[in-house]
Target: CCDC93 N-terminal domain-containing protein
Amino acid sequence: MQTQNIVKQSLRDCPPTPHDNLVERLVLAGCNLNRVTTHSLQNQIMRGTISALKGFQTNPKAEALKYRNVPSDNAKERMDQCKKVVEILVDVNCPFKVEPHHLIRTDYAMLTPMIIWVLRQTLLYECEHNQHKKFYANFFSKKFASEEKAVADFLRRFREESTDIIKSTWFYQEFKEEILGKKLSGRQILGKYLVTKKLLELDISESDFESEDDDGTLVGSIKKDRLPTAEQLFAEDNSVIKTYHEGLSSTIQSMFIDEELDSLDKRITREARAFYRTRKEHLYIEDQLFTVYSRSEDFDQSLVDCTMQELETTSARVQIFTRMISDDYNRTMGIRDALSPKKNSHGKETNDPIRQKIYEDHGKTLNSFGKILRLSEGMTVRISRAMANTFGTRERNARIDNMEDSPDLCSDYVEFNDDKIVDDIIALSNRISKVVQVIMSIPLPDEYRKEAMSYQHLFMSYVEDVLTKLTDWYWKADLMQYHRIEERKRLEKRRSDMRIKQRQEIKNAQLTRIIFDVNQTIQDVTHELTTQNIVATQLRLDFCEAFARSTTLSALQRAN
Model:
C-alpha cells in the first residue's frame, strides 16, 4: 500500500502539464521518443517534431532531416536546426506560421497546433500507403444499408490490430485475450503476467501442449499439471517481496485501466454512430440538391429587362393618351359652358331649341370624355402597380432570405459530438507515464533486489501492453475525429447550398409569376387603350360636328 500512496501523492503534486501532453501526443504518434528520459523538454519536442516531419516522404528535405542533440549553450547550432525545421514546414504548406525562436523557447501555444497538423497530415498519407491503416480508413468512404451494419463494420476495423502489434510479445497476447475487458483485480492481473513469465522460463517440449495447428505451430495451452497457479507463485515470496508486489497490484488496481479503456471504446462507438448519421444526412441532402439542380434552370434575366422595357413603353402611351383625353375634356367643357342657356332681362332662360340641342350634344361628349379619362387614369394605376411589383424584388428577396428553413435543413441527426476522445487518450497515457516514472523512482529492497525487479518488470510489461493498445487507439480515434469534423463541414456546405438553391427557386417562381402578371396587365391595358382610342376618335368627330353647328349658330345670331 505504501507504493500506491507514493504514486497517488506524486500524481497530486505533479499533475500533467500541457507540455507533457504535447510530448505524449508525439510518443503515441510513434515519433521515436521515450516516455522516461533525461532529455530536456525542448530536446524532446524538437526530436519528436523532426521525426513527425519525416512522414512527409515526398519531400526530400524532410526525409534527409536528422535530429542532433545540440547542447543548450550552442546557440548557433540550435538556431540552424530550428531554421531547417521551419523551412520544411514552409515547403509542406503548414498553415501555422512557426518561427525558429518558437522552437527554441518551446512556445506551447504556437507549437501545439503545428504539431497536431503535421501529425494529422502524415497520418492521412499513411492511410493511403499503409495497408493496415488504409483498411481502417476505408470505412469513412463506404456506404451502408443501416446504422447497425455500419457500426459493426467500424468495430471490426477498429479492433483489428496490425501484424506488428499481434506479433509484439507473448505478454501482449495474454493481455489481449485474458486481461483486457475481463474486469480483473490488480492482483489477478499481476498474477497472469507472473504465470506467463514462468511459462516462458519452463523447459517445455512439444508433448506438453494440448494441440497443434495444421502447419505444426504449437497452439492452445500447456497441460495444467505442468503450470503453477499465480497464488502458488505468490506464496513462495517472503514478506518483503510480498509487500512490494502487493503495492504494485494496488497501483494497477488504482489506475482503473479496464474501466478507462471500456469507456473509450463506448465513446468511440458512439462517434461511429454519429459519423454514420452525419454521413447519411449529408448523402440525403446531396441527393436532394442534385434533384433540385436537375429540375431547375437559371432564370433568364433578359425576360425581366424586356418586360420592363415594354412596361415603360406602355406607361408612356397611357400617359400621352391621358393628356390628350384631358385636353379633349377641358375643351369640350369650355364650349359647353359657352352654350349654356341665356337669361333675359327678367332672369328667365330663353328657350332656343337649336342651342339647347347643341348644348346637350356637347354635354354627352363631355360625359364620354370623362368616362374615358377615368378609364385612362385606371390604366395608369394598373401600370404603376405592375411597376411596383417588378421593382419590389429587393424587399421580396429579403423576406425570402429570412424565411425559415425547410424541415430537411433543420433536422439534426448528430445528437452526440465527443471531441475530447483523443485528448482523453493522451491524458490517460500521460497519467500512466507518470505512474511509471514514480514506480521506477521507488528504491528496491537491497537484499531482495532481483525478486523485486522481476515484479517491476511484470508491472512494466502490463503498462507497455496498455500503452500499445492506447497507441493503436490514438491514431484510429484521431482519424475518426478528423473525418467526423470533415463530414460535418461537408454536410453544412451542402445544407448551405440547399438553402441558397431553395430560396433561389422561390425567387425565380415568384419573379416568373410577376412577369406573367405584368405581361397580362400590359396586354389588357394595350387592348383597352386601343379600344378607347377608337372611341375617343369618334368622340372627337362628334365634337367637331357639334362645334361646327355651334359656330354656325353663333354666326346667325350675330347676323340677326
Observations:
- Confidence is low (pLDDT under 50) at residues 211-220.
